[in-house]
Amino acid sequence: MYYAAVACRVLLALVFAASAVSKVRGRTAFAAFEDALRGMRLVPAGQVRRTALAVAAAETALPVLLAVPATETAGLLLAVVLLAGLTASIAVTLRRGAVVSCPCFGATAAPLGPRHLVRNLLLTAAALTALAAAHRPPPDGGAQAAALLLAAGTGALAALVTATLDDLAALFAPSR
152-164 burial string, b = 16+ CB within 10 Å, else e? Predict the structure, then answer.
């Protein structure tokens, strides 16, 4: 369970780092994130900027919280709460029938869809898995370094797939 938790923490830290960077890398990127939030019609127009700042701040803090053992539990709890809010936001937006581009990893032409719900539910499961194993000591044994590297690599690969999900979906979509 320890190594699964490591993989999950690496996955979450990298996904939230990529998401945060995509939003705060410049005024244009942040404005596109605000536009997507506005299009989701989940918060009053006057609260869009405040909501965007809060989401970006949480996403920026998460990789640090997840990397420091003393704040690991707080980071995982924040990840669960943030993912629950993001998942609910996507579900409400889809239920309304609004067509809004996914603001998750920067401006994209891909509209929010069921795959974004599934992605967030899987990320929530990863956070809960890591939370269940939080503060457990690593198992004794000679293969610790190799297992730790494998777990971290698995988390990193899963993060890469997660962050490029829309690109992968477009790549493998049937041509029109």
Answer: bebbeebbeebbe
